Amino acid sequence: MTVLRLCKWILLLAAVLLLCLLAFLALSSRAALDREYHYSRDAAALPLYTPGAGDGLYRLRAGGHSFRLRTAGCAGDNARAAVLLLHGFPVTSAMWLPLIPALQQAGYCVLAPDLRGYSPGARPAGTGQYKLDQLVADVIGIADAARLQRFHLAGHDWGSIIGWTVVQQHPQRVLSWTGLSVPHPAAFAEALRSDPQQRSRSSYFLLFSTPWLPEALLTMHDLAGLRALYTGMRPGQVDEYTALFAEPGAMTAALNYYRALAAGGDEQRARNLTVATPTLFVWGKRDGAVGQRSVELQRQYMAGPYEEVELDAGHWLFVDQAENVTRRILAHLAAHP
Which of 5, 26, 68, 165 counts the most CB atoms within 10 A of its CB? Predict the structure, then answer.
Protein backbone atom coordinates (compact mmCIF):
# COMPACT_ATOMS: atom_id res chain seq x y z
CA MET A 1 0.00 0.00 0.00
CA THR A 2 1.44 3.35 -1.04
CA VAL A 3 1.73 6.26 1.38
CA LEU A 4 -0.88 8.17 -0.64
CA ARG A 5 -3.42 5.34 -0.37
CA LEU A 6 -2.71 4.99 3.34
CA CYS A 7 -3.38 8.70 3.85
CA LYS A 8 -6.66 8.40 1.95
CA TRP A 9 -7.76 5.50 4.14
CA ILE A 10 -6.85 7.45 7.29
CA LEU A 11 -8.83 10.47 6.10
CA LEU A 12 -11.80 8.25 5.19
CA LEU A 13 -11.72 6.60 8.61
CA ALA A 14 -11.53 10.01 10.31
CA ALA A 15 -14.52 11.21 8.26
CA VAL A 16 -16.56 8.15 9.23
CA LEU A 17 -15.71 8.59 12.90
CA LEU A 18 -16.67 12.28 12.70
CA LEU A 19 -19.99 11.43 11.09
CA CYS A 20 -20.66 8.84 13.79
CA LEU A 21 -19.86 11.43 16.46
CA LEU A 22 -22.15 14.01 14.88
CA ALA A 23 -24.95 11.45 14.59
CA PHE A 24 -24.47 10.52 18.24
CA LEU A 25 -24.65 14.17 19.27
CA ALA A 26 -27.78 14.71 17.20
CA LEU A 27 -29.55 11.66 18.61
CA SER A 28 -28.54 12.52 22.19
CA SER A 29 -29.79 16.06 21.74
CA ARG A 30 -33.10 15.02 20.17
CA ALA A 31 -33.74 12.49 22.93
CA ALA A 32 -33.52 15.24 25.56
CA LEU A 33 -36.13 17.48 23.92
CA ASP A 34 -39.65 18.04 25.20
CA ARG A 35 -41.76 17.67 22.07
CA GLU A 36 -45.00 18.28 23.95
CA TYR A 37 -43.92 21.87 24.72
CA HIS A 38 -44.99 21.90 28.37
CA TYR A 39 -43.14 25.15 29.08
CA SER A 40 -44.82 26.94 26.17
CA ARG A 41 -48.25 25.67 27.15
CA ASP A 42 -47.78 26.89 30.71
CA ALA A 43 -46.62 30.30 29.47
CA ALA A 44 -49.60 30.61 27.12
CA ALA A 45 -51.96 29.92 30.04
CA LEU A 46 -50.63 32.83 32.12
CA PRO A 47 -52.97 35.81 32.61
CA LEU A 48 -52.38 38.98 30.62
CA TYR A 49 -50.56 41.71 32.53
CA THR A 50 -52.28 45.00 33.14
CA PRO A 51 -50.56 47.86 34.99
CA GLY A 52 -51.27 47.63 38.70
CA ALA A 53 -51.60 43.84 38.72
CA GLY A 54 -50.44 41.86 41.75
CA ASP A 55 -47.27 39.85 42.20
CA GLY A 56 -46.78 36.85 39.96
CA LEU A 57 -46.18 35.60 36.43
CA TYR A 58 -48.00 37.14 33.46
CA ARG A 59 -48.00 37.54 29.71
CA LEU A 60 -47.33 41.05 28.44
CA ARG A 61 -48.05 41.98 24.83
CA ALA A 62 -45.58 44.32 23.17
CA GLY A 63 -44.39 44.81 19.61
CA GLY A 64 -46.49 41.98 18.26
CA HIS A 65 -45.06 39.47 20.74
CA SER A 66 -46.14 38.01 24.06
CA PHE A 67 -43.47 38.22 26.75
CA ARG A 68 -43.47 36.13 29.91
CA LEU A 69 -43.22 38.63 32.77
CA ARG A 70 -42.36 38.29 36.47
CA THR A 71 -43.65 41.15 38.66
CA ALA A 72 -43.55 42.16 42.32
CA GLY A 73 -44.60 45.27 44.24
CA CYS A 74 -46.66 46.77 41.42
CA ALA A 75 -50.17 46.15 42.77
CA GLY A 76 -52.60 49.02 42.87
CA ASP A 77 -52.57 52.50 41.40
CA ASN A 78 -49.47 54.07 42.90
CA ALA A 79 -46.48 56.20 42.01
CA ARG A 80 -43.75 53.79 43.09
CA ALA A 81 -40.59 53.89 41.01
CA ALA A 82 -40.22 50.94 38.67
CA VAL A 83 -37.19 48.71 38.18
CA LEU A 84 -36.87 46.79 34.91
CA LEU A 85 -34.56 43.75 35.06
CA LEU A 86 -32.96 42.14 31.97
CA HIS A 87 -31.54 38.63 32.22
CA GLY A 88 -28.79 37.05 30.12
CA PHE A 89 -27.77 33.70 28.65
CA PRO A 90 -28.74 30.94 29.33
CA VAL A 91 -31.28 31.83 32.04
CA THR A 92 -34.63 33.58 32.45
CA SER A 93 -36.08 36.27 34.70
CA ALA A 94 -35.77 33.68 37.49
CA MET A 95 -32.11 34.73 37.80
CA TRP A 96 -33.41 37.83 39.64
CA LEU A 97 -35.21 35.89 42.37
CA PRO A 98 -32.47 36.64 44.95
CA LEU A 99 -32.90 40.39 44.28
CA ILE A 100 -36.63 40.87 43.71
CA PRO A 101 -37.83 40.57 47.35
CA ALA A 102 -35.33 43.20 48.49
CA LEU A 103 -36.44 45.60 45.76
CA GLN A 104 -40.07 45.04 46.63
CA GLN A 105 -39.41 45.58 50.33
CA ALA A 106 -37.62 48.83 49.48
CA GLY A 107 -40.80 50.06 47.81
CA TYR A 108 -40.09 49.47 44.12
CA CYS A 109 -42.35 48.07 41.42
CA VAL A 110 -40.29 45.27 39.84
CA LEU A 111 -40.77 43.94 36.32
CA ALA A 112 -38.53 41.18 34.99
CA PRO A 113 -39.39 39.94 31.49
CA ASP A 114 -38.15 36.84 29.76
CA LEU A 115 -36.52 38.34 26.71
CA ARG A 116 -36.98 37.61 23.01
CA GLY A 117 -36.34 33.95 22.29
CA TYR A 118 -36.73 32.99 25.94
CA SER A 119 -40.43 33.87 26.01
CA PRO A 120 -42.28 31.21 23.99
CA GLY A 121 -44.62 33.88 22.65
CA ALA A 122 -41.68 36.00 21.47
CA ARG A 123 -39.55 33.44 19.65
CA PRO A 124 -39.44 34.41 15.97
CA ALA A 125 -37.52 32.15 13.60
CA GLY A 126 -34.31 33.29 11.94
CA THR A 127 -31.05 34.84 13.10
CA GLY A 128 -32.08 38.19 11.64
CA GLN A 129 -34.81 38.50 14.27
CA TYR A 130 -32.28 38.78 17.12
CA LYS A 131 -30.27 41.87 16.25
CA LEU A 132 -29.38 44.24 19.05
CA ASP A 133 -31.62 47.03 17.79
CA GLN A 134 -34.61 44.68 17.95
CA LEU A 135 -33.72 43.62 21.49
CA VAL A 136 -33.52 47.27 22.53
CA ALA A 137 -36.87 47.98 20.89
CA ASP A 138 -38.35 45.10 22.89
CA VAL A 139 -37.26 46.74 26.15
CA ILE A 140 -38.84 50.05 25.22
CA GLY A 141 -41.95 48.26 23.99
CA ILE A 142 -42.25 46.36 27.27
CA ALA A 143 -41.83 49.59 29.25
CA ASP A 144 -44.49 51.30 27.11
CA ALA A 145 -46.92 48.39 27.49
CA ALA A 146 -46.41 48.50 31.27
CA ARG A 147 -46.93 52.31 31.18
CA LEU A 148 -43.48 53.11 32.52
CA GLN A 149 -42.48 56.60 31.48
CA ARG A 150 -39.16 56.43 33.33
CA PHE A 151 -37.63 53.51 35.16
CA HIS A 152 -34.50 52.15 36.76
CA LEU A 153 -32.78 49.56 34.57
CA ALA A 154 -30.48 46.65 35.44
CA GLY A 155 -29.08 43.89 33.25
CA HIS A 156 -26.74 40.93 33.45
CA ASP A 157 -24.73 39.27 30.65
CA TRP A 158 -26.74 39.79 27.43
CA GLY A 159 -29.15 41.85 29.50
CA SER A 160 -26.20 44.12 30.24
CA ILE A 161 -25.31 44.44 26.55
CA ILE A 162 -28.90 45.38 25.78
CA GLY A 163 -29.12 47.74 28.75
CA TRP A 164 -25.98 49.67 27.81
CA THR A 165 -27.51 50.28 24.39
CA VAL A 166 -30.84 51.33 25.88
CA VAL A 167 -29.21 54.06 27.99
CA GLN A 168 -27.28 55.28 24.95
CA GLN A 169 -30.29 55.39 22.62
CA HIS A 170 -33.04 56.28 25.13
CA PRO A 171 -31.39 58.11 28.03
CA GLN A 172 -34.53 60.13 28.74
CA ARG A 173 -36.34 56.95 29.79
CA VAL A 174 -33.82 55.62 32.33
CA LEU A 175 -33.47 56.97 35.89
CA SER A 176 -30.41 54.86 36.67
CA TRP A 177 -28.51 52.00 35.06
CA THR A 178 -26.87 48.97 36.67
CA GLY A 179 -24.69 46.81 34.46
CA LEU A 180 -23.63 43.43 35.80
CA SER A 181 -20.66 41.40 34.54
CA VAL A 182 -20.50 42.69 30.94
CA PRO A 183 -19.03 46.18 30.41
CA HIS A 184 -19.87 48.87 27.86
CA PRO A 185 -20.06 47.19 24.40
CA ALA A 186 -17.60 49.64 22.82
CA ALA A 187 -15.06 48.97 25.59
CA PHE A 188 -15.60 45.23 25.25
CA ALA A 189 -15.11 45.42 21.47
CA GLU A 190 -11.91 47.41 21.95
CA ALA A 191 -10.62 44.84 24.43
CA LEU A 192 -11.34 42.07 21.92
CA ARG A 193 -9.18 43.87 19.38
CA SER A 194 -6.30 44.79 21.66
CA ASP A 195 -6.19 42.24 24.48
CA PRO A 196 -5.20 38.62 23.66
CA GLN A 197 -6.54 37.48 27.04
CA GLN A 198 -9.99 38.87 26.28
CA ARG A 199 -9.95 37.18 22.87
CA SER A 200 -9.18 33.92 24.61
CA ARG A 201 -11.94 34.46 27.18
CA SER A 202 -14.42 35.19 24.38
CA SER A 203 -13.46 32.25 22.18
CA TYR A 204 -16.78 30.58 22.99
CA PHE A 205 -18.44 33.24 20.80
CA LEU A 206 -17.07 31.36 17.79
CA LEU A 207 -18.64 28.10 18.93
CA PHE A 208 -21.97 29.72 19.74
CA SER A 209 -22.03 31.43 16.33
CA THR A 210 -21.80 28.15 14.43
CA PRO A 211 -24.98 26.36 13.32
CA TRP A 212 -26.36 23.28 15.06
CA LEU A 213 -23.28 22.14 16.99
CA PRO A 214 -23.71 24.25 20.18
CA GLU A 215 -27.35 23.18 20.45
CA ALA A 216 -26.28 19.54 20.35
CA LEU A 217 -23.45 19.99 22.85
CA LEU A 218 -25.56 21.90 25.37
CA THR A 219 -28.69 19.73 25.23
CA MET A 220 -27.28 16.20 24.84
CA HIS A 221 -27.48 13.74 27.75
CA ASP A 222 -30.50 15.43 29.34
CA LEU A 223 -29.02 18.93 28.99
CA ALA A 224 -25.84 17.95 30.86
CA GLY A 225 -23.85 20.75 29.22
CA LEU A 226 -26.37 23.34 30.38
CA ARG A 227 -26.72 21.90 33.85
CA ALA A 228 -22.97 22.29 34.34
CA LEU A 229 -23.41 26.05 33.93
CA TYR A 230 -26.01 26.19 36.70
CA THR A 231 -23.83 24.98 39.56
CA GLY A 232 -24.78 26.70 42.82
CA MET A 233 -28.12 28.05 41.61
CA ARG A 234 -31.42 27.43 43.36
CA PRO A 235 -33.17 24.19 42.35
CA GLY A 236 -36.28 26.10 41.31
CA GLN A 237 -34.23 28.29 38.98
CA VAL A 238 -32.52 25.29 37.38
CA ASP A 239 -35.87 23.56 36.90
CA GLU A 240 -37.21 26.60 35.05
CA TYR A 241 -34.15 26.94 32.83
CA THR A 242 -34.01 23.28 31.87
CA ALA A 243 -37.75 23.12 31.21
CA LEU A 244 -37.37 26.03 28.80
CA PHE A 245 -34.33 24.70 26.94
CA ALA A 246 -35.74 21.19 26.70
CA GLU A 247 -38.15 22.55 24.09
CA PRO A 248 -37.16 22.32 20.42
CA GLY A 249 -36.11 25.72 19.13
CA ALA A 250 -35.52 27.38 22.50
CA MET A 251 -31.76 26.91 22.56
CA THR A 252 -31.48 28.00 18.93
CA ALA A 253 -33.36 31.21 19.74
CA ALA A 254 -31.02 31.99 22.65
CA LEU A 255 -27.92 31.25 20.57
CA ASN A 256 -29.24 33.48 17.78
CA TYR A 257 -28.17 36.46 19.90
CA TYR A 258 -24.56 35.45 19.26
CA ARG A 259 -25.18 34.59 15.61
CA ALA A 260 -26.89 37.91 14.92
CA LEU A 261 -24.03 39.75 16.61
CA ALA A 262 -21.48 37.89 14.48
CA ALA A 263 -23.46 38.65 11.32
CA GLY A 264 -23.51 42.40 12.10
CA GLY A 265 -25.73 44.76 10.16
CA ASP A 266 -27.63 46.55 12.92
CA GLU A 267 -28.99 49.66 11.25
CA GLN A 268 -29.45 51.93 14.24
CA ARG A 269 -26.41 52.66 16.38
CA ALA A 270 -26.15 55.16 19.16
CA ARG A 271 -24.41 58.21 17.75
CA ASN A 272 -22.97 59.08 21.12
CA LEU A 273 -21.29 56.20 22.94
CA THR A 274 -20.98 58.14 26.18
CA VAL A 275 -23.35 57.37 29.04
CA ALA A 276 -24.65 60.24 31.17
CA THR A 277 -27.21 58.13 33.06
CA PRO A 278 -26.10 57.42 36.65
CA THR A 279 -24.33 54.08 36.31
CA LEU A 280 -23.30 51.28 38.64
CA PHE A 281 -21.13 48.52 37.20
CA VAL A 282 -20.51 45.35 39.19
CA TRP A 283 -18.32 42.50 38.02
CA GLY A 284 -16.46 39.51 39.41
CA LYS A 285 -12.68 39.33 39.12
CA ARG A 286 -12.98 35.54 38.67
CA ASP A 287 -15.34 35.90 35.69
CA GLY A 288 -14.06 33.57 32.99
CA ALA A 289 -15.69 35.59 30.21
CA VAL A 290 -14.68 39.17 31.11
CA GLY A 291 -11.21 40.53 31.77
CA GLN A 292 -9.89 43.57 33.60
CA ARG A 293 -8.92 45.41 30.42
CA SER A 294 -12.48 45.75 29.13
CA VAL A 295 -13.60 47.13 32.49
CA GLU A 296 -10.81 49.71 32.47
CA LEU A 297 -11.62 50.81 28.93
CA GLN A 298 -15.27 51.56 29.68
CA ARG A 299 -14.38 54.43 32.03
CA GLN A 300 -13.74 56.70 29.03
CA TYR A 301 -17.42 56.46 28.07
CA MET A 302 -18.80 57.55 31.44
CA ALA A 303 -20.11 61.13 31.28
CA GLY A 304 -22.25 61.04 34.42
CA PRO A 305 -22.13 59.60 37.94
CA TYR A 306 -20.29 56.29 37.77
CA GLU A 307 -19.46 53.66 40.37
CA GLU A 308 -17.44 50.55 39.62
CA VAL A 309 -17.38 47.57 41.98
CA GLU A 310 -15.08 44.59 41.63
CA LEU A 311 -16.07 41.55 43.69
CA ASP A 312 -14.43 38.25 44.53
CA ALA A 313 -16.90 36.41 42.31
CA GLY A 314 -17.33 34.66 39.01
CA HIS A 315 -19.85 35.35 36.27
CA TRP A 316 -22.90 34.42 38.36
CA LEU A 317 -22.84 37.30 40.82
CA PHE A 318 -26.06 36.28 42.58
CA VAL A 319 -24.58 32.86 43.26
CA ASP A 320 -21.30 34.11 44.68
CA GLN A 321 -22.17 37.49 46.22
CA ALA A 322 -25.97 37.87 46.34
CA GLU A 323 -26.15 39.99 49.52
CA ASN A 324 -23.31 42.26 48.45
CA VAL A 325 -24.71 42.82 44.96
CA THR A 326 -28.20 43.47 46.34
CA ARG A 327 -26.88 46.01 48.82
CA ARG A 328 -24.94 47.86 46.11
CA ILE A 329 -27.95 47.99 43.79
CA LEU A 330 -30.29 49.26 46.50
CA ALA A 331 -27.84 52.02 47.42
CA HIS A 332 -27.47 53.01 43.76
CA LEU A 333 -31.23 53.24 43.23
CA ALA A 334 -31.71 55.25 46.42
CA ALA A 335 -29.01 57.71 45.36
CA HIS A 336 -30.68 58.38 41.99
CA PRO A 337 -34.46 58.47 42.54
Answer: 68
Alpha helices in 109-184 (DSSP H): 132-145, 158-169
DSSP string covering 103-126, please? HHHTT-EEEEE--BTTBGGG--SS
* C-beta of residue 153 within 8 angstroms of C-beta of residue 91: no
Cβ-proximal residues to 174 (8 Å cutoff; 6+ apart), any chain = 150, 151, 152, 153, 166, 167, 277
Q: Is the pLDDT of residue 270 over 80?
A: no
Closest CA to 129 of 245, 257, 11: 257
156 bridge partner residues: 180
pTM (predicted TM-score): 0.90
Identify the CATH assignment for 38-335 out of 3.40.190.10, 3.50.30.10, 2.40.40.10, 3.40.50.1820: 3.40.50.1820
What is the length of the chain? 337
Radius of gyration (C-alpha) of the chain in whole angstroms: 21
pLDDT over 70 at 25, yes or no: no
Contact at 8 Å (CB) between 314 and 287? yes
Beta bridge partners of 309: 282
Tens-digit pLDDT profile for residues 28-37: 444 458 889 9
Q: Which residues pair with 311 in a beta bridge?
A: 284
So where are the chain's domains? 38-335
252-256-257 Cα angle (round to 5): 135
Beta bridge mates, 279? 177, 306
